[in-house]
Design a protein that fits this description.
heterodimer, A: 385 residues, alpha+beta, six-stranded mixed beta sheet, B: 90 residues, mainly alpha, 5 helices
Chain lengths: 385, 90
């Protein structure tokens, strides 16, 4: 069971997408795992042939448990898939869920036997209410229009996305953030950034493009951060085993708010090397999957730095918390028109406040300031991003 | 396509963006982004879907006009290709 972020302790194997004897390739999706962040597609780290599946679907196992054995491409070598070291803690079997096939068959049978007034049946179709789920309050337990209305009203209450347990997600976020606040000596910096050049450039570029090819300002911000990490390696990587491990690639975690509550921060891989259109395509795909399920394991495990753009919700400045084991997070506040002093005059400019939270075990404020300034400078020349 | 049909189509699109929304509770006169907690990616997805499904390309400069569902309907009615001649036959 791969660790999909420092806030994950266990996951439930939902299904295998491979069987013994299958040839698998690095990056292939081999299983689906249910976590507090929803259903995650687990990728394999190397090429090989599936030797043995060790965990049955429906089983919850701790992070580190070997899920399967893969025979490596080199003969005679056996590697554990998706995880390197098995943990001693025994696998806990999750409460067996009712087999989906049996459940739907039961529902169909029940529907056949239901007593429903024609008006109630019509109303149920209109309101999208499943009659089999209702208990009737009419004579002989018949379902009435009122029963359908009650069920439809209940369905109005906000529901979390399917497969996501909000309370569990809140606990996981709390655990990760408590860990960050306890272990990471944060320092915080902020600076105003003139956004006129970037936004003017973006508006001109988007003007003659159909909606599906337009860029969001967030893409420019991500690219600016990714580029800046090339010269400021101490903000990009992991703090692990008592030391900092810089990352050559910039996998930028994007903090994405989920409808109904909670958030995830999956990676835009290799953000420094992608062009803006490619990043935008990846970002659209990432947001869609963050909200509907099927993020990939590498997207959750790989971010080397995170960007949070809370400004969209109107706040002027973000005081972000580092997501361990990362060592920095960059926040972007709302773009507002504000007075801006320039060459002895006051002009009105569109600007935002960029902020940085970074880890004092790895860097200090002087370098942090230069890093933020490099991000701001990159946003003054959007055509180079 | 008349106003009601356009409003129904727009509501369908919004339902894919905000799946927890109950169309009956959506007030067409109130601020759309606030009611549905729509961020810039949601808005872009909405505009992309309007372009694909209704053939109306909303340029970025017009985004500020899309304040409420009713305002979106107005916009689509105004911009929909050949909506006038068709309307006279329906």
């Amino acid at each position: 069971m791969p660790s999909l972020g420092s806030d994950m302790e266990a996951g439930t194997l939902v299904e295998w997408q491979i069987k013994p004897g299958d040839v698998v390739h690095r990056g292939q999706i081999v299983a689906v795992v249910e976590t507090v962040k929803g259903a995650i597609d687990v990728e394999i780290f190397e090429d090989g042939v599936v030797d043995e599946l060790l965990v049955a679907p429906g089983t919850e196992v701790p992070v580190g448990t070997v899920l399967a054995r893969i025979r490596s491409a080199q003969p005679g070598e056996v590697a554990a898939a998706t995880v390197s070291e098995p943990q001693p803690s025994p696998a806990r079997a999750a409460a067996p869920s009712v087999a989906a096939g049996a459940a739907s068959e039961g529902a169909r049978e029940a529907r056949d036997r239901l007593k429903v007034s024609p008006a109630a049946r019509r109303r149920a179709t209109e309101r999208g209410v499943d009659l089999a789920q209702l208990r009737g309050s009419g004579p002989d337990g018949a379902i009435t229009v009122a029963d359908v209305e009650t069920a439809a009203a209940a369905a109005l209450a906000p529901k979390p996305a399917e497969g996501r347990d909000l309370a569990a997600m809140r606990q996981a976020i709390a655990a990760a953030m408590a860990h960050a606040k306890r272990e990471i000596p944060h320092y915080y910096l902020a600076m105003p950034v003139d956004m006129a050049p970037a936004l003017t450039w973006l508006e001109r570029r988007n003007a003659d493009r159909p909606p599906e090819e337009r860029l969001l300002p967030a893409i420019l911000m991500v690219k600016a951060v990714a580029q800046a990490t090339a010269r400021f390696a101490e903000f990009n990587g992991f703090y692990r085993n008592g030391g900092f491990e810089p990352s050559a690639a910039a996998h930028v975690g994007m903090a994405i708010a989920l409808r109904g509550g909670g958030l995830v921060a999956p990676a835009l891989h290799d953000a420094r090397d992608r062009d803006l259109d490619g990043l935008m395509q990846d970002f659209r795909d990432l947001v869609q999957r963050a909200r509907s399920g099927h993020l990939r394991s590498s997207e959750l495990a790989d971010p080397t730095i995170t960007v949070t753009s809370l400004g969209e919700r109107g706040v002027e400045q973000v005081f972000p918390i580092i997501y361990p084991p990362q060592v920095a997070i960059v926040g972007f506040g709302a773009v507002t028109e504000r007075p801006w002093a320039q060459e002895g005059h006051i002009v009105v400019r569109r600007a935002l406040t960029a902020s940085l939270a970074a880890d004092h075990r790895v860097s200090d404020g002087h370098r942090g300031g230069l890093f933020l300034a490099a991000i701001a400078a990159a946003l003054q020349q959007p055509e180079l991003l | 396509m008349n106003r009601d049909e356009i409003q129904a189509r727009l509501t369908e699109i919004l339902a894919t963006i905000a799946p927890e929304m109950e169309p009956a509770t959506l007030d067409p006169m109130l601020d759309l982004r606030e009611q549905l907690d729509i961020d810039s990616m949601d808005l872009l997805n909405f505009i992309t879907a309007v372009h694909k499904r209704l053939g109306v390309n909303i340029p970025e400069a017009d985004y500020p006009r899309l304040t409420s569902l009713a305002a979106c309907v107005d916009y689509v009615v105004e911009r929909r290709p050949s909506s006038r001649p068709k309307a006279s036959f329906t």
